[in-house]
Specification:
With 111 residues, the chain is α/β, with parallel strands linked by helices. It has 4 helices and 4 strands. It has a single domain, classed as STAS domain (Transcription Regulator spoIIAA).
């Protein structure tokens, strides 16, 4: 994976399939690698994600906390209906920025 050299630029983490108990450790590892590389502005590209469960939500919360600790943040792009519903039911929709696509999400660091 490669990221823009500007640490204020948004690093896009493209995910696909199911973000569940089986897949969430790999997502967390990718998030941790980005944070360790001083990439604290993260966009999760969810356009190809078909399902997310509580394990996926746990990784999202971990990513949000880790990014915020480095003065960054997490944005979600292209979340499908199931993921949006899950975020609404858990209250996370109120605290994470959601965008229709990656281009919109990476528009600026300031929002």
């Amino acid at each position: 994976m490669t990221w823009p050299s500007d640490p204020r630029a948004w690093a896009v983490l493209t995910l696909a399939g199911e973000i569940d108990l089986a897949e969430s450790p790999a997502v967390r590892e990718a998030v941790d690698e980005l944070i360790a590389a001083d990439r604290a502005h993260l966009v999760w590209d969810l356009q190809a994600v078909t399902f997310m469960d509580s394990a996926g939500l746990g990784v999202l919360v971990h990513a949000m906390r880790a990014a915020e600790a480095r003065h960054g943040g997490v944005r979600l792009a292209g979340a499908g209906e199931q993921v949006q519903r899950l975020l609404e039911l858990t209250g996370l929709a109120a605290v994470v920025e959601m965008f229709p696509d990656v281009i919109s999400a990476t528009g600026s660091v300031d929002g």
